[in-house]
Amino acid sequence: MIIKIINKSNHPLPNYETIASAGMDLRANLTEPVTLTPLGRAIIGTGLFIELPIGYEAQVRPRSGLAAKKGVTVLNSPGTVDADYRGEIGVILVNLSNEPFTVENGERIAQLVIAKHERAEWLEAELLTETSRGAGGFGSTGVK
To answer: What would the pLDDT profile of 31-67 be if each residue is shown by its tens digit?
Structure first.
């Protein structure tokens, strides 16, 4: 699949690091560092603008290393970039650690996964098909 992209940053285009990678790293595009205080959040621009085909979305997801090592993650994970959006891809970062975290220009802050999706049509009904689970939710399947 080929996707049009405009790169207004000074960083390389996102790319797959290995042949089996699902996501491509997104880098911060900053004129000056941004410090996130504990529980602080900010939208960090990437300088990237994309044109997805209809039927696809781009999912903005956390980087596991940043989350595990620094406690910094993507707040609305996964964030969705719709096919008709033409603005800059931004990443809502949140600092869940007890220490301030400074985002530097060019730092890998999230990953982008391109995914196909379906559009649903609703069929209003009076009854739903019964299952053994029924209306049980939130831990009702016995998994501990």
So the answer is: 999 999 999 999 999 999 999 999 999 999 999 999 9
Distance CA(42)–CA(86), nearest Å, equals: 20
Domain that holds residue 44: 4-115
User: pTM higher than 0.85 for the full model?
Assistant: yes
Domain count, the chain: 1
Structure token digits, residue 31 = 């004129």
Residue 15 CA to chain centroid, in angstroms? 15
Whichever domain contains 41, its CATH number is 2.70.40.10
Q: What is the pLDDT of residue 137?
A: 80
**In this structure, is residue 100 part of a structural domain?**
yes
DSSP string, 67-87: HHHH-EEETTSSEEE-TT--S
